[in-house]
Every structure is written in structure tokens, then in C-alpha cells.
Specification:
Blueprint: H1 3-58, H2 79-82, H3 92-116, H4 118-144, H5 153-178, H6 182-196, H7 201-210
Helix pairs in contact: 1-6, 1-7, 3-6, 4-5
Length: 215
């Protein structure tokens, strides 16, 4: 056989080997990047967990506890996107606990979102109450004093009454603005307790090893 008869199979074999090596390298790099992303998310969630727990603890009784508007445990969630890469790295218990960690962080964040929606609703209630109170007083004045002149004593009294109603509602607005619905707060508190009990030390060690990060 001529040398070119051996050359073509050899080139095909080499090209195939290079393609396979590049595929495996790309796969390892993707898994390494995914491990880094998961580590960042878990570590950030743990930091925010400490902040959120302290906020609720310092808030006092259950009736006065409030959620901070911007305290999210998992603003970005990548476990559902990359978990297929780690099927062989975590046993069943580790897999379930990490999935539970991400799921409970998502529930906590949903509670914060629902709690945040209460603020614009409260503000709208205040605006409506002010408008209705002032309109009612001035309407009653117009009906009862159809011939009152501008600047007359009845008109001044009506304006003063409207002003007092406005100020009274504004004084009570603090309670409305500080009010937070109980259910989102109680849900968030339950999730914080559950998340705190999940041990991810082994997960973190394995992810660091995959990401080539020294402990």
C-alpha cells in the first residue's frame, strides 16, 4: 500500500481525536463556569439571609415586623438551568437539599415582592381618602351656602375644616405607609427558618473543586 493510503485514515483519526478533545474541554469549561455561578448565588443568598434574619429580629414583635423592600436572597437563579451538569456530583440527599435551598429562596423573594406591592396600594388609599374628605366638605358648603360670597366667614370656615381633614388624614398616613400585610411577612419568616437549617457545606466544597477554587 502507498503511503497516502495510510495518511487519510490517520488524518481522520487525528481530526476526530481533536474534535472529541475540544468537545470534552468545552464541556468541562461549561461545568466549571456553572459551578462558579452557583457558588456566587449560594454565597450571596447566605449573606442576604443573615441580613434579612437580622431585619426581622430587630423589628420587634410579629405585629411590627416588616420586610425590607430590596432584600432578595436569589435575584438570579441558575440551578434549574445548570443542574443537569451535576447529576453525577451530588447524591440524592445533596441534590434534594440544594433544590430545596433554591426553591425556598424563591418563595422568600416572592413574599418580598408581594409585600412591596402593599406600599403603592396604601399610597392610593391615602390620596383617595384626602380627596373624598376635602370634596365632601366643600360640596356640603356649596349646597348649604349657595349665596356665600368669596372670602365670607362661612367659606373660610369650610376651607379651614377641609384643611383640618386633610391634615388629620396626613397624620394617620404614617400607619398606612408602614403597614405591611402579615401573610407575606409570615411566609418569609418561615422560609428563613427553613433555609437556615439547610447545610450546604459539602455542596460548596464540591462546587469549589469543580470550579478549581482552593478552599
Amino acid at each position: 500500500m502507498a503511503i497516502h493510503d495510510y495518511l487519510e485514515p490517520a488524518v481522520t483519526l487525528i481530526v476526530g481525536f481533536i474534535a472529541f478533545w475540544l468537545y470534552q474541554k468545552q464541556k468541562r469549561d461549561s461545568k466549571k463556569d456553572a459551578a462558579n455561578i452557583l457558588l456566587l448565588e449560594i454565597q450571596n443568598a447566605k449573606r442576604q439571609l443573615a441580613v434579612a434574619t437580622k431585619q426581622l429580629k430587630d423589628a420587634g414583635t410579629d405585629e411590627t415586623k416588616m420586610l425590607a423592600e430590596d432584600t432578595f436572597l436569589m435575584p438570579n437563579e441558575s440551578w434549574s438551568k445548570y443542574k443537569y451538569l451535576f447529576v453525577r456530583d451530588f447524591d440524592r440527599d445533596e441534590w434534594d437539599s440544594l433544590s430545596s435551598f433554591y426553591s425556598r429562596c424563591a418563595i422568600f423573594d416572592d413574599a418580598v415582592i408581594h409585600n412591596n406591592k402593599a406600599f403603592p396600594q396604601n399610597a392610593e388609599q391615602i390620596r383617595e381618602a384626602m380627596s373624598q374628605a376635602v370634596t365632601k366638605i366643600l360640596t356640603e358648603f356649596t349646597i348649604n351656602n349657595p349665596t356665600a360670597k368669596s372670602g365670607s366667614k362661612p367659606e373660610i370656615n369650610a376651607i379651614n375644616a377641609a384643611s383640618k381633614a386633610h391634615d388629620l388624614i396626613l397624620a394617620q398616613a404614617g400607619a398606612l405607609f408602614s403597614y405591611s400585610p402579615r401573610k407575606p411577612i409570615l411566609d418569609a419568616q418561615d422560609q428563613l427558618t427553613s433555609i437556615s437549617s439547610i447545610n450546604l457545606e459539602q455542596h460548596i466544597l464540591k462546587l469549589k473543586k469543580i470550579a478549581h477554587i482552593s478552599s
